[in-house]
Amino acid sequence: MDARIIFPVNEADWISPIVIQNKKDATEIRVCIDYRSLNNACVHDPFPMPFNDEVLDNVVGNESYLFTGGFSGYHQVRIAEEYKRKTNFMMQWGSYACIVIPFR
Question: Is 92 in contact with 64 (CB distance < 8 Å)?
């Protein structure tokens, strides 16, 4: 919550389960939210993102390029207010939802 990635929720229409995974070195764990059921309930975009080679073909020969968003890393894309509560997950301390699109 201090990083402004999640916020507490009192009531939830949708809750995704939490999954515990071992990290590669097996000495630590990673807490993950399993959004597969939410993904299956969503309408899929009929116009997916282009492949990298398509993008590169379109920019060849131009003088300059602009790459945005790479400086700060993850957690930059804000979720629209009406969709935030669909990212709910529950822990022993309460129910939370995401403010930005969760990555990893």
Answer: no
